[in-house]
Amino acid sequence: MRDRSRRLTLRAHSSGQFLVLLAAVTLATACEREADPELQPDLVLREELGLTARDEVHRILVRGGAREVADPAETTIPAEAHVEFVTTDWLVHEVVFDVDSMRADSRAFLESTDQVASPPLLRQDSRFVIDFRDAPPGRYPYRLEGSGEAGRGVVIVVVKP
Questions:
Q1: Which residues lie closer than 8 Å to 64 by C-beta, 6 or more apart?
Q2: R_g (Cα) of the chain, nearest Å
Q3: Of 23, 106, 138, 147, which sees the most CB atoms within 10 A?
Q4: Please, which contacts does 42-47 make with residues 24 or more away whose CB atoms are closer than 8 Å?
Q5: Phi, psi of 66, deg, nearest 5
Q6: Bond preceding residue 72 cis, omega within 30 of 0
Q7: Residue 116 CB neighbour total at 10 angstroms
Q8: Is the pLDDT at 23 greater than 60, yes or no?
Q9: In the predicted model, is pLDDT for residue 13 greater than 70?
């Protein structure tokens, strides 16, 4: 009889460990949730940059004409996200961050990561991706240059609560 009660105690203890393990796995899964499907990187970004379904990519569409336009002109992102500028026409575009009008730590971040300006975006669906992981929070104003009058926009990096 004594051995049986010891076995029941061990089983109850094992069940308690199982519940703790299950809670830990659930918590870990919750912490590594996939990003909103609309913000998930496409196959090209996954293959070329190694992004995963947990990464957020905020898209800004760039088009020209009489004036360069960013849509949306203001984009708020968490510090660990990426921003992808995508051209919607065949005009030449360039994205240039206005480092002279941002905080010193934001400027240093863009300069140290070599992300101050895009190369010329020459074709429709050209992309320029900025990695804001480890970026200090703040405003990152930029200019769009191309065949028309320069346009403006801003990326606002915030810390998730």
A1: 89, 91, 92, 93, 146, 147, 148
A2: 23
A3: 106
A4: 45/82, 45/84, 45/129
A5: -65, -30
A6: yes
A7: 15
A8: no
A9: no
The whole-angstrom separation of Cα 20 and Cα 112 is 43
Is the backbone of residue 125 left (phi > 0), alpha (psi -120 to 50) or beta?
left
Tell me which residue has tokens 């050209």.
126
Q: Which residues of 118-128 are buried (b: 16+ CB within 10 A; e: fewer)?
A: beebeeeebbb
Dist CA 124 CA 134 (whole Å): 30
pLDDT digits (tens, 9 = 90+) for 94-107: 999 999 999 999 99
For 78-90, the pLDDT digits (tens) are 999 999 999 999 9
